[in-house]
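QA checklist item 7 of 12: single-chain prediction sanity check.
[x] sequence parsed
[x] length recorded as 336
[x] structure emitted
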Amino acid sequence: MTHHTYREVRLAARPEGPVEDDLFEIAEVPVPEPEPGQVLVRNTHMSVAAVMRTLMDENTDVPMDSFELGAPLGGPAIGEVVAAPGTQLTPGDLVEHRLGWREYALLDAEQAHRLEPGLMPDPAAYLSQGPTALMGIERGAEVRSGDTVFVTGAAGGVGSLAGQIARQFGAARVIGSTGSRAKADRLIGELGYDAVVIRGAGPVKDQLREAAPDGVDAVFDNVGGEQLTAAIAVANAGARIAIVGALASQLATDPTKAAKTEIDTLSLLSRNITLRGIALYSHLDLIPQWNRRFAEGLRTGTLSFPHARLRGIEQAPQALRELTEGRHLGAVIVEL
């Protein structure tokens, strides 16, 4: 049954600093009728990510369009097709698309990607950031058997999967970084990390040297700043460092004072270290590969999907705020 109206979350104001609930407004709007070639989707799950805080600013350095004032935000979502006249999709199909932050989405058929029914034991798992994690481990840091791997931002949606994937690629020792002792304990207890350095608990370089007395061979960097500088200092000859995210600048309360990373180029040169920026839009072939790998891992228990789940579209602003405050371990999903 189609409702006559649905709710969407709009950007009410540009942020001056951290995410606050009054930056958003929830509007009730009529459910549209799709025209031939269009798809109407009833969204069931959406995810929030740190990049959304960046996209709330009018001007950003990321290769994505900023959110428009007064318009709904956007982001990864999955849902069921309600109607799709003149397309290959049929009502009931599960699809993934980029128009989250609303209970119904109207989009052109080519913007909706049909998902294999029943592949995932939990449909929310389609919204994991696993493709990015797999890309950084396999193609960025080129993790090999016996490696010591350092994952920065290990408790986030990407990092909480990157450590697990590093193990699948044969890593002998996996070290993470996070912002609290409680998260560090969970990373070690639940997600197979061998050691965790804690941001703010003393110089990262000293903590990393202690956690990796034999140095690190591969680095999956989500953060930049002091953590990347420390990783380079502790990197072994021939180490591969993948730059996958830049949370230090994305979550800086004052972007003009965002962490710049000091890099000692002589040490890169003398130790033959590779530093590689890598982004998913150049590696989209990994998405179906990851979905199959993740589905199998979830069913056999060899992979887990750490996430927090909030229910109801009205919780979406809170979900993004809590994510940027570091309240959760893993992905943050809103069930609509």
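[x] summary fact logged: The chain is about 25% helix and 25% strand.
[ ] second reviewer sign-off
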